[in-house]
Amino acid sequence: MKVFEAIADAVVAHGVDTVFGLLGDANMFLVADLVNRHGVRFVAARNENAAVMMADGYARVTGRCGVATVTQGPGLAVAGAALTIARQARTPLVLIAGDTPPGDPLHVQHFEQQPYVLATAGTFVPVTGAGTAARDVGLAFRAARELPGPVVLNVPIDLQEEPVPAGPILPVPAVPRPPLPLVPDPAAVEALAQRLRTARRPVLLAGRGAEPAAAAIKDLADRCDALLATTLMSAGLFAGHPYDLGVAGGLSRPLTRRMLAGADLVVTFGAHLNRWTADHGTLFPDAVLVSVDVDPAAIGRRWPVAGGVLGDAGETARALSALLPALSRPQWRSRELAAELAGADPFEGLDIRSTVDLIDPRAFIRICADRLPRERTTVVGVGHFGGWPNLLLDSAATDRSFVAPWEFGSIGVGLPFAVGAAVGRPDRPVVAFEGDGSLLTGLGELDTLARVGAPVLLLVLDDAAYGAEVRKLAPRGVDPQLARFPGRDLAAVARALGLPAWTVTDEAGARAAFDAVLPLTGPALLHVKVHPDVVQEKF
């Protein structure tokens, strides 16, 4: 057995049945062995960065460790942004990267891969010898799950061809069971309970880290008459609760803003507070902020807080409930507020500005709200366009059905994350929102989507510009033409790459396109030409 075969065996032994990647000299025989001998599904991307994003999207919707592979040198270098996104999102992911021979520093594709990996993924596991290959694979998978986060398993190309020495192969076992929930310090819980006793207008704000504790947080809110809210990443977590304010942040709706402005205590659970969650300090200006998190480094790292509790969200919420009497705040949790929340219409009062050949993006999202399947995975890419679906379209974070890979602010994420999500959860359709500028950074992945054939509806909101830059340049007196581009027929491009596609310029055309494409049974693209002067103030 050669080393690349031993690596393939070890990867499959860790339960891997799907790998994303792009072939090159330093990984092609490994991939061929995974496919031909083990029956692993290989999803071939057109760009290494996109391949890692696909593995990230796969991991986010399945809860499994994503796996990708790239070749040496430029193959790894191109994937840097995707690795950084996964690191900031703490996505469990193993990237198997080839490397040039250590004894050939003049190789055309040589560069120092370890420091690059440490600056992007953060964790580097080298395969150091033929006899340790299976163990090193185990170390990589264990690190990805325990951190969690992305790990690069680095395999020099010459080592892959060496024979594995005879003898027992002892791979590193996976962790037999997840770690026990982190129990908070009783004194810290009592201090927070006292804040909740004396607060007049408390809000409990949950982030992605608190999703398993949603029931415990709702029970705590009911016990102390607090309102509920979520970060964007956990949108919809408390859907159906009569006092759910929805998303807190720059994309808060008007009623949510009004209530958060009056809060005097905001307790966050598993939410990494940052400038967007707090909307640069304008969202809850008079509130004392207290953060509950299992990561001590996350408490107060990106936004100042008055206090912190180190502990599991569910354990902390239940401990607080046990210490608190049933509190009544009828002026805060009123019947009038519940009725107002129940009847709130995000589209009410919009000044729709569609023209003959350009649709107002808000009008298009209103049609999406009416026509898109309720059971779906929603993916929202990064850019000015992303504000519209995030602000106006209800999404559910439950069952890992909402993906917003905004962690690093990188454009070009919508399509590859949608492909990964669709491969991971083929039982439900994926609806992905992307911008024209963002799509054009990775146009080749339309071919990947066509080959995969998964039910992904890609909605491209095209303002013929980098909309965020236009929005920022013009008020400073700088010509926004620097960020504008000629209109392109993206539907024709999609069709040329094998995708059914429609162009939408008005509301009637949007409804007709949805009539043609729904129910979704395979990939499709709607090229939506939106009015470029409709500006999203917060995004």
Automatic annotation (TrEMBL):
Cofactor: thiamine diphosphate
Pfam families to which the protein is assigned, alphabetical: TPP_enzyme_C (PF02775), TPP_enzyme_M (PF00205), TPP_enzyme_N (PF02776)
Keywords, comma-separated and alphabetical: Thiamine pyrophosphate
GO BP: any one term: isoleucine biosynthetic process
Every Thiamine pyrophosphate enzyme central domain range: 189-320
InterPro entries in the cross-refs: DHS-like_NAD/FAD-binding_dom (IPR029035), THDP-binding (IPR029061), Thiamin_PyroP_enz_cen_dom (IPR012000), Thiamin_PyroP_enz_TPP-bd_dom (IPR012001), TPP-bd_CS (IPR000399), TPP_enz (IPR045229), TPP_enzyme_TPP-bd (IPR011766)
Thiamine pyrophosphate enzyme TPP-binding domain span: 382-528
GO molecular function annotation: acetolactate synthase activity; flavin adenine dinucleotide binding; magnesium ion binding; thiamine pyrophosphate binding
Coiled coil regions in record: none
Highest rank taxon of the organism: Bacteria
Gene Ontology CC terms: acetolactate synthase complex
Residue span, Thiamine pyrophosphate enzyme N-terminal TPP-binding domain: 1-106
Family of the protein in this entry: Belongs to the TPP enzyme family.
Identification of the protein by name: Acetolactate synthase I/II/III large subunit
